[in-house]
Design goal:
Blueprint lengths: L2 H19 L1 E12 L2 E12 L3 E6 L5 H8 L7 E6 L2 E2 L9 H4 L2 E4 L11 H12 L5 H14 L16 H12 L6 E5 L7 H18 L2 E5 L3 H7 L2 E6 L2 E6 L1 H5 L4 H8 L1 H19 L7
Parallel strand pairs: 3-8, 3-9, 6-7, 7-8
Antiparallel strand pairs: 1-2, 1-4, 4-5, 9-10
Helix pairs in contact: 4-5, 4-6, 5-6, 7-8, 8-11, 10-11
Bound molecules: adenosine-5'-triphosphate.
Length: 290
């Protein structure tokens, strides 16, 4: 190899290394199947650091299975998954502890422990990963997370059955944030919320993502969420991620599911709502008076 070729190879290697360091989650060639039912085959996906990536796809396309594979609850039969540069497939729980502490998960439906109060739910991951933290500090952390997610302080001693749907989601979010994660997984966080509650939850997610510098993997069917807070969207179909990009980039593709989803009546309504919000913001003077 000539000196010039060596220099070019080194530059390429460095460029790749810089590119890689921008990636929070790197999924390559994974296959997931349940018996004869193949859910993913040769699926690739990159999630960039600091982005909110929306993950969409028809029901049963394997969005939750993909999330479970990334967080180690489902072992792919083929392929590799890296989180923050660490190989995850086949790692034992103890071995991957340092990485597992760096993410928080809000499962579909909230998945709060019904026999524990909100504060006790939030304290579960703290007890699990930091058993030496004393009760008083644990309580303080829980109270802080409760405030952070917009719940009233009185929610702490309540049981999940005493909360509204929106409050349950926020309690689940508070638990997901218990360990100050860098990476947040949200599985259909606004499902079942009324539109105002859903918009408030989205806004909270965006605010937290910006202030805490989080990377967010967000599974949703909610077009308003995609339009209002997602930086990019990944589309699952045909056992793969068939496209990733901004909504404008996806709209330029002529895949029938993508066109139907974003350009159907609901997609058009969501676009119209976003441009109305934009116009309103542009017409509002900086001091907020109309
Ligand atoms: N533990 C399991 N055992 C057998 N099949 C499973 C298991 N988990 C998921 N599946 C199947 O895998 C497929 C994908 O499920 P998944 O929950 O990931 O879909 P999804 O895209 O998240 O759907 P939805 O949008 O309806 O929530 C479904 O057909 C489901 O029945």
């Amino acid at each position: 190899m000539s000196e010039e070729q060596q220099r070019q190879a080194e530059e390429q290697r460095l460029a790749q290394a810089v590119e890689q360091s921008d990636i929070a989650i790197c999924v390559r060639g994974i296959r997931n199947a349940f018996g004869d039912q193949v859910i993913h085959d040769a699926l690739d996906l990159d999630v960039r650091k600091g982005e909110i990536l929306g993950v969409v796809g028809g029901s049963g396309t394997g969005k939750s299975v993909l999330m479970r594979a990334i967080i180690g609850l489902q072992t792919p039969s083929e392929g590799e998954i890296e989180v923050f540069g660490e190989q995850m497939v086949g790692r034992l729980d103890d071995d991957a502890l340092a990485i597992r502490k760096r993410w928080g998960v809000l499962f579909q439906g909230g998945a709060l422990f019904s026999t524990l109060t909100v504060a006790e739910n939030i304290e579960v991951p703290i007890r699990e990963y930091y058993p030496n933290i004393g009760a008083q500090l644990r309580d303080e952390i829980a109270a802080y997370k409760i405030r952070m997610t917009g719940l009233p302080a009185e929610a702490g001693p309540k049981y999940p059955s005493e909360l509204s749907g929106g409050m349950k989601k926020r309690a689940g979010l508070a638990r997901a944030l218990a360990l100050d994660p860098d990476l947040l997984f949200l599985d259909e966080p606004t499902a079942g919320l009324d539109p105002i509650g859903a918009a408030a939850f989205d806004e909270q997610t965006r605010k937290l993502q910006q202030t805490l510098g989080l990377t967010v993997f967000l599974i949703t069917h909610d077009l308003d969420t995609l339009y209002s807070i997602c930086d990019r969207v990944a589309v699952l179909a045909d056992k793969k991620v068939i496209a990733v990009g901004t909504i404008d980039e996806l709209l330029a593709l002529d895949h029938p599911w993508i066109q139907e989803y974003f350009n159907g009546p609901r997609g058009r309504a969501a676009t119209a709502a976003v441009s109305r919000e934009k116009n309103k913001a542009e017409q509002t003077p900086p001091d907020g008076r109309l």
